[in-house]
Amino acid sequence: MQHPPITLRYFDARGRAQFLRYYFRARKASFTDERVPLSPDFEPWRAIRDDRARTGPFKKLPVLHWGDRPLAETLMIAAFVHEASGDAGGLSDDDNLRHGMLTSSLMLDVSTPLSILLWAEINFAGADIGAVAKRTLERIEQHFESIEQAIVEWRWLERARGRRVMLADCLLWEAIDAVRTVFGPHWSLDATPALAKFYAEFAGRSACEALLAEKPCPITARPGEAEGIAKIQQALG
């Protein structure tokens, strides 16, 4: 993949940037993986937050520097990289729409509810974590069933075998893996065999797992996330 120097700036967490890291790794694209350290007081983040050259027009992360072009907002970054990498040119108009729809859906209907759940104990004092976890799991299960139906109709697995790894693939793998991490034994892919097959056979899986092993990090920047996940799983019984 031909590209100018790339820097991806995000917290030392998976969150909204991990699928981009996977993508660059799987595609063997050199990039600077700039991670803002996590701390209970968020001091490393506060130190740079008002520097819009580093945190973008809205003072938030991730920010991608593609050569001298800074880009903010996860979905906009994904759309730009999809075009700039040449991936869009290798797909039909319909398949480009499907990649965009899947990317948006995974971010808004899986990753975002998962993040809200992980932060619920901190952001909503007195919240019934068991009830929030149960409802979040139900919503995600229902949504994965819809995604299952879509990728079967779109022949996603078959077409993925005939093309290079793309951003939507990386986000789908990350979403599944993050949900497995949070819900543990309370969720499985048994009801969605196409997703189970994708998760097991994804061509970029080795790159994803290698990055997770080399740079283990929490899903979000929430302090005490591991303990929070344990409480979620305990609450689900």
Question: What would you say this structure looks like, in words?
Answer:
It is a single chain. This protein has a 4-stranded mixed beta sheet. It has 237 residues and is α+β, with helices and mostly antiparallel strands. It is globular. It contains 11 helices and 4 strands, in the order βαβααββαααααααα. The relative contact order is 0.15.
Largest sheet: 4 strands, mixed
H/I helix tally? 11
Q: Assess the beta-strand content as a share of residues.
A: 5-15%
Outline: globular
* Helix/strand class: alpha+beta
Average pLDDT across residues? Answer: 97
Layout of strands and helices, then pairs:
Elements (H helix, E strand, L loop, with lengths): L5 E6 L6 H9 L5 E5 L6 H6 L3 H4 L7 E4 L2 E4 L1 H11 L8 H31 L5 H25 L2 H6 L5 H17 L9 H9 L3 H10 L10 H11 L2
Parallel strand pairs: 1-2
Antiparallel strand pairs: 1-3, 3-4
Key structural traits:
about 240 residues, alpha+beta, four-stranded mixed beta sheet, 4 strands, globular
What is this structure, in a nutshell?
With 237 residues, this protein is α+β, with helices and mostly antiparallel strands. 59% of the residues lie in helices and 8% in strands.
